[in-house]
Structures are given as C-alpha cells and as structure tokens.
Amino acid sequence: MNVLTDSMLASVLTALIVIGVALFVRASASVRKPGALQSAWEVTASSARNLADVATPYRHRVVAVAVSLFWFILAANWLPLLPGSPLPAPTANINMTIALAVIVIVMVHATAFQARGARGYFRHYLTPLWLAPVRLLEELIKPVTLALRLFGVLFASGLVVALLGALLPPPAALIPHAAWTLFDLFMSVVQAFIFALLTILYFNAAVPADVAETSPPIERSDR
Amino acid sequence: MIDLPSSNFLLPDATAVVEGVVFLVVLFVVSKFVLPRLQALAIQRQRLIEHDLTSATAAKDAARRHEEEAEELIRQARRQARTIIDEAYERHDYIVAEGMRKGREEYEWFTRRLDPARTRPNATSDAPQPALAAPRSSDENCEPTALSVG
Question: Is the dihedral of CA B33, B39, B40, B42 positive or negative?
C-alpha cells in the first residue's frame, strides 16, 4: 500500500494545530470577557446547534462532528498559507477528503440506526419500496460528492498557484499570487462551511427530530 | 506543492485510514474537552445575563420609587416653604400694623402735649392743623396700604 508521507505529515500537523487551539480556547475561556478565538468557537458551536434539527440525545454528536470538521478543514486549507510552510494542504489530497466523507456518512447512518432502531432505520430507507434503489444510490453518492467537492477546489487552487509560479517570472507573479492567496483564504472558509453544513443536513435527513411534547388541540369540524 | 502519487491520484490509499484516525482524534478532543466547557460557559453566561437583567429591572423600579419619593419630598418642601412665607407675610403685616399703631399713639400723645385744645371734644376735625399735623396725613395715607398687605 502506498502512503503519502507529506500529506500525512500535513494532516498530523493540522490536527496538532486544531487541538492546540481548541485546548487554548478551553483553558482561556471566560464568561465575562470571551476572547476572539473563544467567540469564534462559540459562534461555530451555536450555529451548528441551531442548524441541527435532530433529537436532543444526538444533538451534541452532530454539533461536535460539525465543529470539528469546520475547524479541521479550515486549518488544513490554510496550512500551505502559513509563512514558510513546505507542506501541501492535506485537503488537496483525495485521501483526506475521502476519509472525512466516509467518517461523516458512517456516523450519520450509525446515529440514524441508533435513533430509529433496526426496523425504523430500514423502513425509513425502503419506504416507498420502488424508491429504494434511488435512496441507496443517493447514500452512495453522498460521500463521493462530499469528498470530491472539497478535494477538487483545493487541488485546483494548488494547481493555479503552481501554474502562476511556472508561467510568470517571480516579480510579475507576485500580484496575481497575492490576489489568488486572498481569494484562497476566503474560499477555504466557504469550503469548510459547506462541508460542515452538508454534514448537519445529512444528519437532519437521517435522524428524527424531537417530537413536540404537546400537540395543538384538534378542533371539531362544523359538519 | 501538490503531492501526486504515481498511480491514479483520484483513488484513495492507506493514507486515508491514517488521516481518518487523525481526524477522529481531533473529534474526540473537541467533543470531550472543548465543547462541553464552551456549552457550560454559554449556559453560565445566559444565567448571568438573566440575573443582570433581573437586577437591572429591580434597580429601575427602585430608581422610579426613589424618584417618586423625591418628588413627594419636593412637594412637601414647597408646601412648607409656602407656609413659612405666608407666616412671614402675616408677621410682617402684624409688625407693620403694630408699628403704625404705636407711631400713631406716640403722635397723638405728642400732639396732645403740644396742643391741649385738640383734646377737647368736637374740636378734632375743625381745628386748624398744627405744624406736626403733616406726618399724620402721611400716616393716614400709609395706613390702608400697610393693612392691605395682610
């Protein structure tokens, strides 16, 4: 089996950065005066919590996956933008995006199975029966699209940087390179957001939401 | 900077497993250590804000109550001031009237001593006025003015 050491090293470094920042946020968290990092993490968590329309016992899991994905993908996308970084973005490699997409889909189905039970889970995907092949196909396509979207954007971004360096002499490439880097910064955030958002939507589609405790009274009809 | 494997770069290999494990470690740390703490802080902050809002409402009520008390005190002070001013005016009128009465008595006494004829009955108005009669007329002019104050 072939193993890409650069990509693996980059993913480990990304993980270390995210864990370091997360633990720093945890250690320096304050009720009265939250810092910028704490506020950013809190906004991410509260946004994920608001978007997650699943039963309460599973909400923390959805929020944790979405928040971790967002910060991990963002750090991975920004890794080559660090000054003097020799490492590529791990998300510009199909292995990373496939791994993330597979983890997401496995967790979605495991949570759905746990929440609905075996009968409910299969009934959810096999009803109506004539749509079952389409549903199965959809579930197979989801991780592929999730992985290829992120990989494609980051891979293309790396290619553009390489092309700018190859086609233009260093002084002339400076301005396009700077402009592309700024665009890349923005695009990295968008891609991390999309990945996390789609993850939450997949959870929402698979895991049932909370049932309202009190139903509104049914009025008697006039007839 | 892009790491292209020798085989098809769109096919995953064993690196995916390692990178998946790396992400799972991140997920574990965030899920177990970071998010519960942030959630607890958010709840704590929400309680703090609710408490502050309650305190602010209570302080607002107290401020309104104190304002009403202050207005009532000002009304009382104005009533007292009015009473004091009225009493001062009454005292002033009394002193003025008393002074005029005493002055008139002294004037009468001096007039009687200088002109004994004035003491005779039915000779007060027809008799020619003495030299000291001038102040009397001025007193008579003053008298209604002084009494009208009260």
Answer: positive
Cis before A128? omega within 30: yes
Residue B108 lies in a domain: yes
Domain count, chain B: 1
Separation CA B41–CA A27 (nearest Å):
12
Answer yes or no: pTM beyond 0.80. no
Please give the residue range of the domain that contains residue B68: 18-118+130-149
Residue B4 lies in a domain: no
Q: Is A200 among the domain residues?
A: yes
Angle of helix A56-78 versus helix B35-114 axis, rounded to 10: 100
Cross-chain Cβ contact B34/A26 below 8 Å: yes
Chain A residues with CB-CB distance to B11 below 8 A: 94
Residue of B nearest to A107 (CA): B24
| Residue A18 touches chain B, beta carbons under 8 Å | yes
Distance CA A112, CA A106 (A): 10
Collapsed DSSP state (helix, strand, coil) of residue B6 = coil
Smallest CA–CA distance from B44 into chain A, residue: A31
Residue A109 placed within a domain: yes
Q: What is the pLDDT of residues B76-134, one digit of tens each?
A: 999 999 999 999 999 999 999 999 999 999 999 998 888 776 655 554 555 455 544 44
